[in-house]
Structures are given as structure tokens and as C-alpha cells.
Specification:
heterodimer; A: mainly alpha; 10 helices; B: 12 helices
């Protein structure tokens, strides 16, 4: 490479760096590497419940209920998100709060980003951890929950313990055939009731 | 040579923002020849809000023009603020000056800026003040070189291996952009490190910003990975990490606009200046950053 060619290349490289700074704003996404998601998921599991859940803006009496819920949970050893999600009987009110928190996070993050993926996983986990009472935590349809769990189980960065929780939740969900059968039975019942009135 | 200078300048940015804010002093020679108040400027620390780029305050310039010799402090601030970009311009346009660039600038300050009537030529209708300064300096240097050359030589011969005009302009504008970034980072660092009531996170905002976007963008190095970042900065959750980064970028942007606002008053002019630089830098980098937000 000639001297002038080398200078041009150096100036081009410096201009590229300066350009990134000139374009930088709060919406500029972070380019996290492949190792980020496992680390981010572990970090979230270890995060104290109160630290994140208290960032939700709540008014009395909901804010007071949150404090009571956190205090009661701490008494039985539930202090982190891992403690909550993998507890054999996680408090529903805290799962609901966690679901709200992570739903809000997915709206704040650029879709598809590492932050978004981590938030979406924990949104699903908060619902899945409700077990048979999952429908008391979220209005998400069984079909949509199933879709979400399917996505999460495909992610290589989700650890085995988390996948086991998701699989258990998936087993509890009615299958598509079950749902169709119930829908058909419901329609038939409605038709018979209408015929009797007529 | 100019690219090496730019490279050194960017390395200097990194060094400056990794260390405490330095004191800046007035031009030694020029200050010594001016009125007594200027002597105090030699060891005064520049307040965080001072800048290399003063507002093109035409009222202020008119005042300075009328009060030359009587209000030396105002003029000295002017010299201080424009010194570095002008040095860069001098070295790129007249490489033969070598180590004499600062001396030439001091002479320029005394012979031109401080001379009654010179500043009155800085008329807003004739264009931006920095363009006026650059042209005035070029003419001063050419005149000086011509007078000192023996035997008299043509202007073309006086300029030792001058780069093409477009290249000089590119180098000056790139140095200008570097100066904006340097000043922005410096102010942001000071801002974040200044204790504020109920804002304990500010030093961490700076640290996270430096380790993630800033240093990789300036050095081209790999950004610090997530696990190391949260450990180093004691980040308690992914949400906190994201908030610290977003706040840092927002602060950077605010200081960035404030630096430019010192020489472009109107909000639309600031935006225009930023867009001009984006286009310029994108072109210089071969369009590699065209698709950035």
C-alpha cells in the first residue's frame, strides 16, 4: 500500500469511529456478544426481587401490598427471582408483579435485542411458575403461552433447570385438540339451549 | 502526518477522560504581553462550562473590538477558546511551520485579534466566525512566510508540500469533529463525577459509558462483556445495566449538543451542524456508518 493509501485508510478508520459517536443516542442498541444472554439470565435470576419490582410505579394500596408481599416472601426464603420462580409454591401476587415488570421491560427494549430476549423469557417464566394457576397471573391465551414456551425451549442460552420449568408448564397446558373439543362442546351446548327456548 | 496527528488526538481524548480534568492556562506569550489581569489567567482552572468553542456572539465580538486593550480578559478568552483548532489547522495547512505553530498563533493573536478594527471585520453577514478566523490566519501566515523568505518566492513555493485543498479541508473538519467529541467527553466526565444530591449513580453512569460505547468506539477495541461490566460496576440487575447505559448515552447527547450550541445558536442550526458532520464523516469513512441511527 502506498503512503497516501495508508493515510486514507487511517483517516477513514478514524472517521468511522467519530461517526459512531456523532450518531450515538439513547436509542442506539448495545451490540452484546453471544456470551451475554446466559450471563444476563443468570444475573436476572440472582437479582433481589425488591430491587426490580420496586421500580414498578404503583399507588396505594397496591404499593403497600407489594411491600407486604416482599416481606412475607423474605420470611420464607424468597428473596431473588430464582427463589421465586423455582419455589414449590411461589406467591401468586409476586409472580403477577414479576410478570408486569418483565412485560414492561419488553416494551422498553428493542425487540429481538439481548435485553428484550431476557425480559421475554422471564415474562414467560413468571406465568409458567404459576403452575395450575397460571391463568390467574396473566390473560395470555394458552395458545400464545405455548408459542412463547416453544420459543424459549429453542434458545441455546436457556439453562436446563429453566427448561424443565417451562416443560412442566407446557404439559399442563391444554393441547390444541383439547381446546377444539371444548370449543365444539361449548357450541353444541349453546345450540341445544337455544333450541329448547324456541 | 495529519492522520497521525488525528490518531494522537483521539489517543489524547482517551487519556484525558481517564484522568482527572486538567487545568488549562492561557497562551503564555500572549498573556505576558497583555494587561495585568491576564497574568491571573495563567494558573486559573477553566470552569467546566468553558469551551474551546465560544458562542459566535456577535455582540460580544463587537464589544471586544471596541474595547481592545481595555478589556483584555474577554479577548484572552477568545484566544484560548480558538487556539487548539487553529493549531491543528496551521499544522495541516503549513507543515513547514513545524514547532512554530504555537508561536505563529501567538503572533496572530497580538497582531490581528488584538488589533483595533480587526474584529469589526467579523460580520455575521459574511459567514461563520470560524471560517473568518481560518481565512484570516491563512492570510497572516502566507504574508509572514513571504516576508521572511529570501529571496522572495511565489506563494506556491512557500507552502511546503501542501495537501490538496479538499484534503486540507477534510483534515481540518475531522480535527474539528475530534475537538467536539473531546470536549463533550470531558464535560460529561466532569458532570458525572460532580457529586449531586440524590444522584449517587452518576459516577457509575460515566464508568459504564466509558467501558461500553466510548472506549470501543475510540479505540476500536472489543467492548467489555456483560459479566465483567456488571461485576466491575456493581450493577444489580439487567434493568439497571440498561438504564445506566441509556442515561449515559442521553447525557453524552446533551453535552454534545451543548458544545455545538456554543458556536451555533439556533436549535435548527445545531441539528444542521450535526447532520453536516454525520454526512461528512460517513463520506470519509466510505459510507460504513450510513445506516446507523
Amino acid at each position: 500500500m502506498t503512503g497516501s493509501g495508508h493515510s486514507k485508510a487511517a483517516l477513514s478508520s478514524r472517521a468511522e469511529k467519530l461517526s459512531k459517536l456523532f450518531n450515538l443516542n439513547e436509542k442506539t442498541p448495545e451490540e452484546w456478544g453471544d456470551r451475554t444472554l446466559p450471563a444476563m439470565a443468570r444475573h436476572q435470576l440472582a437479582t433481589p426481587l425488591g430491587f426490580d419490582l420496586r421500580s414498578l410505579t404503583l399507588k396505594p394500596p397496591d404499593s403497600e401490598a407489594r411491600e407486604m408481599g416482599l416481606s412475607r416472601a423474605a420470611v420464607i426464603g424468597i428473596e431473588s427471582f430464582e427463589d421465586l420462580l423455582f419455589h414449590r409454591e411461589p406467591p401468586l401476587e409476586l409472580l403477577r408483579l414479576a410478570k408486569d415488570f418483565f412485560k414492561k421491560r419488553t416494551r422498553e427494549c428493542q425487540k429481538g435485542s439481548a435485553e428484550w430476549q431476557a425480559a421475554y423469557l422471564f415474562y414467560l417464566l413468571a406465568i409458567a411458575a404459576g403452575g395450575a394457576r397460571a391463568q390467574e397471573i396473566s390473560a395470555l391465551t394458552p395458545g400464545d403461552l405455548l408459542k412463547g414456551i416453544g420459543w424459549a425451549l429453542e434458545q441455546p442460552w436457556v439453562d436446563d433447570k429453566t427448561k424443565a420449568l417451562l416443560c412442566a408448564a407446557r404439559r399442563r397446558l391444554p393441547t390444541a385438540a383439547d381446546r377444539q373439543e371444548r370449543l365444539t362442546a361449548g357450541l353444541q351446548a349453546t345450540t341445544r339451549a337455544g333450541a329448547r327456548k324456541g | 502526518m495529519a492522520c497521525l496527528e488525528l490518531q494522537e488526538a483521539l489517543a489524547r481524548i482517551l487519556a484525558e477522560v481517564s484522568s482527572p480534568a486538567r487545568e488549562q492556562t492561557a497562551l503564555g506569550g500572549a498573556a505576558g504581553r497583555l494587561a495585568a489581569p491576564l497574568e491571573k489567567m495563567k494558573t486559573r482552572t477553566n470552569p467546566p462550562e468553558s469551551s474551546i468553542w465560544p458562542l459566535t456572539d456577535w455582540t460580544g465580538l463587537g464589544h471586544a473590538a471596541k474595547s481592545v486593550g481595555k478589556d483584555a480578559e474577554a479577548l484572552n478568552q477568545l484566544i484560548l477558546k480558538y487556539r487548539r483548532p487553529l493549531e491543528i489547522h496551521l499544522r495541516t495547512t503549513f507543515p513547514s511551520l513545524g514547532n512554530r505553530a504555537e508561536e505563529i498563533l501567538q503572533d496572530f493573536s497580538e497582531d490581528k485579534i488584538l488589533r483595533e478594527g480587526w474584529l469589526s471585520h467579523a460580520d455575521r453577514k459574511r459567514g461563520r466566525f470560524r471560517a473568518f478566523l481560518k481565512t484570516s490566519l491563512d492570510n497572516f501566515v502566507k504574508d509572514r512566510l513571504r516576508r521572511n523568505a529570501s529571496p522572495p518566492v511565489s506563494l506556491d513555493e512557500l507552502e511546503h508540500d501542501p495537501p490538496a485543498e479538499q484534503q486540507r479541508s477534510d483534515l481540518f473538519d475531522a480535527a474539528w469533529a475530534e475537538a467536539i467529541v473531546s470536549e463533550t467527553l470531558k464535560r460529561m466526565k466532569i458532570d458525572c463525577e460532580t457529586p449531586r444530591k440524590n444522584q449517587p449513580n452518576r459516577p457509575r453512569i460515566w464508568e459504564v459509558f466509558r467501558l461500553r460505547p466510548a472506549r470501543p468506539m475510540l479505540e476500536g477495541a472489543e467492548p467489555m462483556d456483560y459479566a465483567e461490566l456488571i461485576a466491575r460496576c456493581a450493577i444489580r440487575s439487567p434493568a439497571e445495566a440498561q438504564n445506566l447505559l441509556a442515561t449515559g448515552k442521553r447525557l453524552f447527547r446533551a453535552h454534545f449538543r451543548a458544545v455545538i450550541a456554543e458556536y451555533e445558536e439556533r436549535p435548527d442550526a445545531i441539528t444542521e451542524e450535526i447532520e453536516l458532520f454525520k454526512t461528512f464523516l460517513s463520506g470519509l469513512s466510505g459510507g460504513k456508518t450510513d445506516k446507523m441511527q
